[in-house]
Design a protein that fits this description.
Elements lengths: L6 E6 L2 E7 L13 E6 L8 E13 L3 E9 L3 H29 L1
Antiparallel strand pairs: 1-2, 2-5, 3-4, 4-5
């Protein structure tokens, strides 16, 4: 199908939660169990992550958006480790930045 722009609102090594506009024509066609090709761009990462994800949760949200819970599907254990490592680096860096802000404010 056509590309679907989404905003990541929850991210872990095993999957992600994203929000998409409710008025998007593709949201009417979404079904649990569907598999998507995803390109995830993490700030500060050297390259985007190309991966497959299966839709496991779908919920209408405020502000005319839909929340999609996606479970990453890896082609191999090595690919799964690479995705988990890249996400762990991003989350660790983000937590350090937040901690520095908190310490700087106090």
């Amino acid at each position: 199908g056509p590309p679907l722009d989404a905003t990541i609102v929850n991210l872990s090594g095993g999957g992600m939660g994203v929000r998409v506009p409710l008025d998007s024509r593709t949201t009417r066609e979404l079904r649990r169990g569907q598999t998507f090709r995803c390109r995830v761009r993490l700030p500060g990462a050297s390259a985007g992550l190309d991966l497959a994800a299966r839709l496991v949760h779908l919920e209408n949200m405020p502000e005319r958006t839909v929340y999609l819970g996606l479970e990453f599907r890896s082609s191999s254990p090595a690919a799964e480790r690479r995705v988990q490592d890249e996400i762990a680096r991003f989350v660790t860096d983000l937590e350090r930045k937040q901690l520095r802000r908190v310490r700087g404010a106090g």
